[in-house]
């Protein structure tokens, strides 16, 4: 009989198709931050490009275009390398970026140069103030509809209609306007009264000279998966590098036109990263996802310890961020030419949970959390995690078989488990077999031990439910 440690699941290799070419879309000319203002004066909403992505070329060919388009962006923006990497992740995951810092740190210039490398995209930009009205973002009221007793906003050429958006002086807006932004930036939908309209937004950049903390702004901030702080660097080398870059164009965007990547290509990569393209799925072994959560938990603990005692309070990373970090890992693997997330991709989590360019203790705590976790959970414990995840999934399948007659998926793990207990078919497998198998696993790390205890508790709970001992009426 095999030992429990010898039963592991190795997923099959994954192949992906080569989609066909996509059609062309509108191409904004000139300053990318002025494109929407030129378009916003007229034109019916029906002229919008088709929603969704078209099947494109090999995704790794698009990845090569992304690297060509954004790889040289730091040459004219000294010290912006980490922000560029974070921004590319935002574009390849269809997420938003918040950039804050004192005036004169090139936030607007950066947004213009970044969006200028995306082709076929409509760009909306505006500068907020305390007097900014929702109509300035979402369009004016349609007078003809108002005469019929309906309040409908004309959204063509507005934030709702834009593919890319830059909103400057973000926190100068009042809370009512910021609250209205939540639907567009996070759910990608505009809701106003009875009007519900999908928003085309792919990625938005909000810039601010300061952060304003209120109940509303905290909710808004959580909608930005990526955050960066741009502070002035007065070191001799940084100032010399800025002088050399400035001398090449004297503050103007000049020289040859940069390489550009089509928005449709970025949308296709984002759909892959989000698991929306069944033919091109990115895999992640259970132990990699376990390591992800362990790193984030340890980072929260270390950051809490590093805080000043008088200012110490619970460090909050929302469940939304934990979940969306998987999308970032998918994008990181894709940008590295793979369809599988590996432990080496976990370093990309720093772009999600730390403020790039912000307080140094954030980066230090993250690096320590990552190194500690990878040193303590490896080898046999990673195999234990994969086996425990497979055992948990199989227990749920056994429950579904008892409840609804669903078939148990014939996996490699199931076949090994049958051999382990000398069973002829999956019909002979019981919760007791699973409990005995899990009980035989002996992880070393306490976090993996906690996972084992959790799986055991779940198997025992399902056993009691089948035996009618827990009073649950669902079974």
Main sheet properties? 5 strands, parallel
Residue share in β-strands: 5-15%
What would you call the structural class? alpha/beta
Name the quaternary structure.
Answer: single chain
What is the H level of CATH, i.e. the homologous superfamily of the largest domain? P-loop containing nucleotide triphosphate hydrolases
- Number of individual domains: 3
Within the largest sheet, what's the order of strands?
3-4-7-1-8
Structure keywords:
alpha/beta; Rossmann fold; 3 domains; five-stranded parallel sheet; 8% strand
Structural overview:
By secondary structure, this protein is of the alpha/beta class. It has three domains: 242 residues, P-loop containing nucleotide triphosphate hydrolases (Rossmann fold, 3-Layer(aba) Sandwich), CATH 3.40.50.300; 94 residues, no CATH class; 87 residues, no CATH class. Helices cover 46% and strands 8% of the residues. The chain has 18 helices and eleven strands. Strands 3-4-7-1-8 form a five-stranded parallel beta sheet. It has a two-stranded parallel sheet with strand order 2-9. A two-stranded antiparallel ribbon has the order 5-6. Strand 5 and strand 6 form a beta hairpin. The longest helix is centred in the C-terminal third of the chain and has 25 residues. The protein starts with 34 loop residues before the first helix and ends in a 9-residue tail after the last helix. About 9% of the residues have low confidence.
Quick summary:
The chain is α/β, with parallel strands linked by helices and 475 residues long.
């Amino acid at each position: 009989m095999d030992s429990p440690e010898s039963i592991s699941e190795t997923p099959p290799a994954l192949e992906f198709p080569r989609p066909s070419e996509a059609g062309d879309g509108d191409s904004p000319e000139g300053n990318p931050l002025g494109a929407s203002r030129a378009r916003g004066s007229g034109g019916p909403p029906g002229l919008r490009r088709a929603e969704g992505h078209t099947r494109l070329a090999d995704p790794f060919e698009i990845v090569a275009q992304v690297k060509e388009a954004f790889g040289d962006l730091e040459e004219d923006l000294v010290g912006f390398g980490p922000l560029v990497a974070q921004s590319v992740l935002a574009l390849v995951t269809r997420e938003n970026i918040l950039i804050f810092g004192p005036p004169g740190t090139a936030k607007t210039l950066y947004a213009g140069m970044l969006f200028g490398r995306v082709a076929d995209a409509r760009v909306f930009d505006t500068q907020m103030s305390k007097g900014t009205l929702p109509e300035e973002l979402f369009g004016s009221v349609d007078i003809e509809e108002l005469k019929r007793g309906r309040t409908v906003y004309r959204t063509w050429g507005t934030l709702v209609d834009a593919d890319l958006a830059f909103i400057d002086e973000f926190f100068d807006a009042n809370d009512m306007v910021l609250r209205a932004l939540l639907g567009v930036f996070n759910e990608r939908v505009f809701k106003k009264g009875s009007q519900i309209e999908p928003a085309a937004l792919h990625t938005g950049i909000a810039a601010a000279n300061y952060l304003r903390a209120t109940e509303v702004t905290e909710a808004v901030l959580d909608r930005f998966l990526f955050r960066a702080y741009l502070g002035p660097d007065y070191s001799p080398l940084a100032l010399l590098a800025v002088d050399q870059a400035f001398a090449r164009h004297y503050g103007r965007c000049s020289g040859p036109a940069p390489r550009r990547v089509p928005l449709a290509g970025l949308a296709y990569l984002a759909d892959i990263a989000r698991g929306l393209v069944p033919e091109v799925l990115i895999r992640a072994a259970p132990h990699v996802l376990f390591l992800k959560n362990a790193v984030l938990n340890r980072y929260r603990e270390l950051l809490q310890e590093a805080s000043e005692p008088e200012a110490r309070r619970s460090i909050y990373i929302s469940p939304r961020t934990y979940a969306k970090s998987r999308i970032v890992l998918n994008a990181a693997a894709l940008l590295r030419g793979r369809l599988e997330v590996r432990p080496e991709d976990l370093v990309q989590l720093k772009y999600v949970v730390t403020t790039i360019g912000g307080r140094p203790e954030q980066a230090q705590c993250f690096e320590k959390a990552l190194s500690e976790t990878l040193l303590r959970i490896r080898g046999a414990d990673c195999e234990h995690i994969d086996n425990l995840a497979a055992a948990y999934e199989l227990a749920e399948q056994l429950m579904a078989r008892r409840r609804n007659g669903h078939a148990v998926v014939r996996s490699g793990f199931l076949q090994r488990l049958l051999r382990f207990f000398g069973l002829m078919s999956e019909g002979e497998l019981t919760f007791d077999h699973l409990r005995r198998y899990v009980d035989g696993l002996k992880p070393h790390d306490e976090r993996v031990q906690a996972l084992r205890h959790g799986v055991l508790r779940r198997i025992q709970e399902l056993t009691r439910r089948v035996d009618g001992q827990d009073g649950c009426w669902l079974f």
